[in-house]
Design a protein that fits this description.
By secondary structure, this protein is an alpha+beta fold. Helices cover about 30% and strands about 30% of the residues. β6 and β7 form a beta hairpin.
């Protein structure tokens, strides 16, 4: 009988099978949702393909600025040995200077301008049109590394944007041409050229006036607080008096007098 009861308790009741099926379905759905969420997370976490960029990518029209061309190495086996940056011919700049980079040799090439520029009351007939950096044997940008090249420019054009078409040369002879201009629909091309947008500086928004909290005026001590303190103090005094009286009273004594005891006994 005991064995039969144990066997019955260990079996599956008809109602349990439906519950177990629901649990299995819920588990499967949970696993599926978790897998989809994980896949989306990994997809969003994968960084976009690195490319040659100009930083910052905005500058004030008509002013001077320093820009940095950042060059990451995208190859797993070859090193970057040369960078060529072409300045836009339709937006020439009168003053261009290059910051030395240890282990790299820079060469700035000038070209004659179709329309001369005026800078500091001087007519400029030629301007830098291309800058080339070439690495020494031990200074090439290796896989997993990047290098930065600083250039000072000015005065900048009064509007629009400057597109710097760049060529990146690798030690295996491969040349990546970062020359694609921005698209009209906003999508990024396969090999985008570095772009410097010329935007007028905006005045910083005025900070809102800080509100000064006015302290509440106090009319003196709270009457309810004083009354409560007095009541508590009075209760404490009464309690101490009661304890003191109890301590003075002899143990085992009775408050009844002797005649009262005799009368009570005769009754």
């Amino acid at each position: 009988m005991a064995e039969a009861e144990i066997h019955t308790l260990g079996g599956n009741f008809p109602g349990d099978r439906g519950d177990q099926g629901n649990v299995r379905t819920l588990i499967k759905r949970s696993v599926l949702v978790a897998a989809v969420a994980g896949g989306l997370t990994l997809a969003l976490a994968v960084p976009a393909s690195a490319h040659v960029t100009v930083n910052p990518n905005t500058a004030t029209p008509g002013g001077y600025t320093k820009v940095t061309f950042r060059v990451p190495n995208e190859s797993d086996a070859a090193s970057t040995t040369k960078l060529e940056v072409n300045l836009p011919a339709d937006k020439p700049v009168a003053s261009v200077s290059v910051k030395p980079v240890p282990g790299w040799t820079s060469v700035a090439v000038k070209s004659k301008l179709a329309t001369p520029l005026k800078a500091h009351d001087t007519e400029i007939t030629e301007a830098v049109s291309k800058i080339t950096w070439t690495a020494d044997a031990s200074s090439a940008i290796k896989p997993g590394q990047f290098q930065e090249f600083d250039v000072s420019l000015g005065p900048l054009p009064e509007s629009g944007q400057m597109i710097f078409k760049a060529l990146q040369t690798y030690s295996d002879g491969d040349i990546v041409r970062w020359i694609d201009e921005p698209t009209t629909d906003g999508t990024e091309p396969d090999h985008p050229a570095p772009v410097l947008k010329l935007t007028a500086a905006t005045a910083p928004a005025a900070a809102p006036a800080a509100s000064v909290a006015t302290p509440e005026k106090s009319d003196g001590p709270d009457a309810f607080g004083i009354a409560g303190f007095a009541a508590g103090l009075l209760a404490l005094i009464l309690a101490l008096l009661a304890v003191q009286r109890s301590a003075r009273k002899p143990a085992g004594t009775s408050s009844a007098t002797e005649p009262e005891k005799v009368a009570a006994a005769s009754n």
